[in-house]
Amino acid sequence: MKKIIALLTILLLQSCIVNIKQDYNGYSRNLVFEQNKKWLINNIYTDLNSYDRDELNKKIFEKFNELSKGNAYTLEKARSENLIAGKISFSPEIEEIEQLKNATDFDYLVNIYTKKVRNNLSLIEPTEQTRYASNEAFAIIEVYDIKKMKKIYLQKASSLQTREEKTKGPSFHYTSETLSKKNLKKIIKDIEKNAILKN
After folding, report:
1. Per-residue pLDDT band at 128 (split at 50, 70, 90)
2. Is residue 37 a contact partner of residue 108, using CB atoms and an 8 Å limit?
3. What is the residue-wise DSSP string for 66-95?
4. CA pair distance 160, 181, nearest whole angstrom
5. What value does the CA radius of gyration of the chain take, rounded to a whole number of Å?
6. Domains plus CATH for the chain?
7. What pLDDT shows up at residue 87?
8. Is the distance from CB of 57 to CB of 192 less than 8 angstroms?
């Protein structure tokens, strides 16, 4: 019995290793956090459920608030103080950035996006696989310098888990929902690791 449990544990660990690919799209991996610079954290654009959406919104805000020494605003807070009128698009047009520049004193805008690409594998696949299947997701965080009206940071993290045709079971897999969250958390950790903090 102990051997069976040990074997299942090894299979679980091997199957659930996730290799996350990071792409900065030519932008610097460093974000500079200067004293008194204000960060506006947009609501996450995601196909995750409302609970996960709220938790990720909270986690991202807390990290940027920590790095900026308390100078981060959620979109809700900005609205409540009549600093922002409505929604802000993901990858906004230059006109939207210009409007933020002229109507607010925010220095940076942070946009977040996650996407479940496919979810064809169950958490546990107990039998032999008859066809190729995969779970895939990605996440993006982008930052705009509002004063300069340009994008200064973009990181995309993506992950893929596959099961080849004629693979014998059992095998274990992260769902695309879990992959989405892992991708985003990877970006957040990377931002913290490479942050340049200035007094």
Report:
1. low
2. yes
3. HHTTS-EEEHHHHHHTTS--S---SS--HH
4. 13
5. 20
6. 2-198 (3.40.50)
7. 85
8. no
Q: What is the DSSP letter of 35?
A: T
Which candidate, 164, 82, 149, 151, places its Cα nearest to that of 110? Answer: 151
- 61-80 confidence digits (pLDDT tens): 999 999 999 999 999 988 88
User: What is the per-residue pLDDT for 166?
Assistant: 63
**pTM, whole model, 2 decimals?**
0.86
Distance CA(52)–CA(90), nearest Å, equals: 19
Read off the amino acid at residue 17.
Answer: I
Long-range contacts of 14-21 (CB under 8 A, 24+ apart): 15/161, 15/171, 15/172, 15/173, 16/172, 16/173, 16/174, 18/159, 18/161, 18/174, 18/179, 18/182, 19/159, 20/157, 20/158, 20/159, 20/182, 20/183, 20/186, 21/157, 21/158, 21/159
d(CA 155, CA 25): 7
- What pLDDT score does 129 carry? 57
Q: How far apart are CA 7 and CA 168, in angstroms?
A: 15
